[in-house]
Amino acid sequence: MFNLKFSLFILGAQLVAAASCDIYASGGTPCVAAHSTTRALFSAYSGSLYQVKRKSDNGTTNIAPLSAGGVANATAQDSFCAGTTCVITTIFDQTSRSNHLTRAPAGGATPGAGPDSLAPADGAPVKLNGQKAYGVFISPGTGYRNDKTNGIATGDAAEGLYAIFDGTHYNGDCCFDYGNAEVSANDTGPGHMEAIYFGTARANAGAGSGPWVLADLEDGLYTSASSKGTTASNPTITERFVTAIVKGEPRNQWAIRGGNSQSGSLSTFYSGVRPNGYNPMKKEGAIILGIGGDNSDRAEGTFYEGVMTSGYPSDATENSVQANIVAAKYTAA
Ligand SMILES: *[C@@H]1O[C@H](CO)[C@@H](O)[C@H](O)[C@H]1NC(C)=O
Ligand SMILES: *[C@@H]1O[C@H](CO)[C@@H](O)[C@H](O)[C@H]1NC(C)=O
Ligand SMILES: *[C@@H]1O[C@H](CO)[C@@H](O)[C@H](O)[C@H]1NC(C)=O
């Protein structure tokens, strides 16, 4: 097995380090959605990362990386939003599939309500390798979604997900999620979701008092095949930046992994069979951020970047992605 960690490849005349989605592609499990307001997730990506809208005149502008594969141009946001306030209206998909995230509509958990709120564009300042950028600050009532996706896993098909969150921003309500959900914004039953959850919404889910990286599989947040008791191998997260992974494949296999986005490697918190009633899965292929599948929008958290793949990524591929994340040098601003 060759080591992707230090792999470089030639792009045009430049020598560039492989980014997260280049690494997943090399592993045979390509990204089918790639979302980040902080940086490009392909080394060749120089398109828009996200769109902001300002209050003074409802004008919008798209924020791109400083260079292909680089960190977002935060200066562009700061100058566009000077003297007024801005919200993040769109988080663009960096793959060619146009799986963009926009304001989530009302759902089964919020009958009669309007759509969710949009995140303040300057709500989560951060630095990557010393350069300023902004994450997506989700407070209760805020959420993003795409119900008409392209290439996202459905049914029992295999997929992998990772996201980077602020490990210090969470609550115990439902549900700060990123990943695969119902296309109807309604709870359609067990196995209709496969998303990463971060927070303390399920008491005694992992070791200590949380927060934990859990999986929202619909009708339950899981750490293992059991819906009860504590999974001791799933630790309370104490890091400022957490890399969170959930993946699932046919034949009754799924896993939760995680680590410190600033250093070190990933640990496997669970790998094994699914809970009773979740095999086969009934994934629907919508994408949510900051909410549950039925638009339960009472949770909070901060999202910096995340992807969804086609196929079940190997641990080795994810370990290389973690090395790329560490090399991005996330620090608090
Ligand atoms: C911006 O759009 C909103 C919603 O359509 C509207 O209520 C508001 O008056 C607009 N603001 C300006 C400055 O045009
Ligand atoms: C960043 O945005 C500013 C403001 O829009 C712009 O002047 C500058 O050229 C951008 N930087 C790069 C490297 O594109
Ligand atoms: C969601 O469920 C509600 C209540 O059962 C129903 O009225 C609504 O039509 C459903 N929405 C969709 C998009 O299926």
TrEMBL record:
A GO MF label: alpha-L-arabinofuranosidase activity
Pfam short name (any one): ArabFuran-catal
Biological processes, Gene Ontology terms: arabinan catabolic process; L-arabinose metabolic process; pectin catabolic process; xylan catabolic process
Chain intervals for the UniProt region annotation (Disordered): 100-124
Enzymatic class: hydrolase
Compartments, record wording: Secreted
Entry keyword set: Carbohydrate metabolism, Disulfide bond, Glycosidase, Hydrolase, Polysaccharide degradation, Secreted, Signal, Xylan degradation
Catalytic residues in the record: 218 (nucleophile), 294 (proton donor)
Disulfide bond annotation, renumbered to this chain: 21-31, 81-86, 174-175
EC number: 3.2.1.55
Protein name (Swiss-Prot/TrEMBL): Alpha-L-arabinofuranosidase
Organism of origin: Mycena metata
